[in-house]
Write a structure and sequence with these properties.
This protein is α+β, with helices and mostly antiparallel strands. It is built from 13 helices and 18 strands. Strand 7 and strand 8 form a beta hairpin.
Length: 564
Amino acid sequence: MDKRLSIALLLTALVVAVTPILFPTPRRTPPATTGQDSLISKSIPAADSPMAPAEASATPPSSIPAPAAATSAPQRDSTAVQPAAMTGEVTTITSEKSIYRFSNLGAAPLSVTFQEYQDLSPGQKGKVTLLNPGRPLLNYSLVLGGDTIALHSTPFTVSRSQGKASEEVITYRVMLGSVGVAISYTVVPSRYVLRVSGRVENAGNDGFLLVDLPSSLPPMEADTLGDLRTLAYSFKQTHENARGVPFGKLDPGEKQLEPGPLTWAAVRNKYFVVGVVNTEGGSFEEMTLTGGPRTSKAATHASATAVKALKDGVFSFDVYVGPQQSTQLLAMGRDFDHVNPYGWSFLQPVVNPIAALCIKLLLWLHDTLKLSYGWVLVIFGIFVRIALWPLNQSAMRSSLKMQEIQPRLAEVQKKYKDKPERQREEMMKVYKESGTSPFTALAGCLPMLIPMPVLFALFFVFQNTIEFRGVPFMWLPDISVKDPYYILPVLMGVSMYVLSWIGLRNAPPNPQAKMMSYMFPVMMTFVLANMASGLNLYYTTQNIAALPQQWLLAKERLKARQRL
């Protein structure tokens, strides 16, 4: 028992060490330094040059198509999340999934409220609202002819129209001197998506649109600090894997340039995300990240700007403002479902595929069986154990064979201790006659390692999968957070001890294995005590489901000992 456990732990460490070699993560581009110029800094005289004044006019540019007749007049929103002086004229659009609020100042979305999700933060009872405290969700600037024109305080005229398939369209227009700007948002009713398109007249061929992502997101979970600690920017370079940069990894004032082409860029917390995603064939030229001031141990603010080149004065992209829900993220395409990659960077190549498979299977069980996710986890734990039953049987029988030949091997070692060559020959003869090999013990340990990747994957799944958020089960108010009464961690530890105790029955005396049968359950109880209760539920179910097989194997071991 002790040899198998030692070999299993050694193999686990080997897997962790070899993974980054066999599945190397893409080499990242070094962060920008003070001597490194971005695409935008090269296009203007100086990085801190004054912004050109925005001379606003209510007259739309003549070459921009006139809006369709508005279906309804813009509405003033009495529940605006920023002071009226900052938000200007607020227009509200309600869809099946979300409530969007837009401002004519800067032609920007202010906030998005989700119809299906409750705010779980202390003192909050309403729906989840994604907003950028004190600022719009997105801010725009134009780089034209060497000047940077910030649009955040520019008043646009607004019109609403009806698009195809019940889509609502809101369009903003303004004249900035001789330059006409139009920005349109199309609300997709059944998704968390805004389609953004725009035109800048007389922009020339070297214009750029700068898109500022939110500098923060408010906490919306019961564990406020934990939610804030997950704040991060994510992005995907066209020919590389998606990467994330937590706010805490950016020192105050530190600038980091991520060169393009970029498929998408986003800011996220634990369960929700705001992302700008390119339409087919488009890309962002680069992205700049800057660390924000620290007011506490958790980094709660940073800034990020994505750069999009104007092609003949035209730009378009999608904005996803919604939950990190698997089906919705997959529907976006372009690997946007990797906006919150599972696992630490060196484990992502292994954990991500397993986590994705686990999520698909859990969602399928939930939709097919019409059961709560708590019962789905119970069924999933039993399913994994049943799937491993043949492997465990084979491993145990290999162990029994090794026990049977141990006296013969010991006799050969003693008899030929002074003749190493003859000793190896006689030992191989014993292995051959018994149908085993020196690697039989190693093969018997492999089934112990198979559940480990699933356990690692589920650890990250429960940290990030919104489908489990707020789901109750029995006495548990939410399977995505820890058991408030610590009942499951204790049950998990007790079931693990019983499993070890049965496993030692009828086995040769082994003080080390007996000590581990006490220490390992206690250690795992403390490790999992503050983790998601769903993870404890899965692990407890696995242990209980393994008890019958362990009991049968113990009886088989007794019969083998009686034959010796």
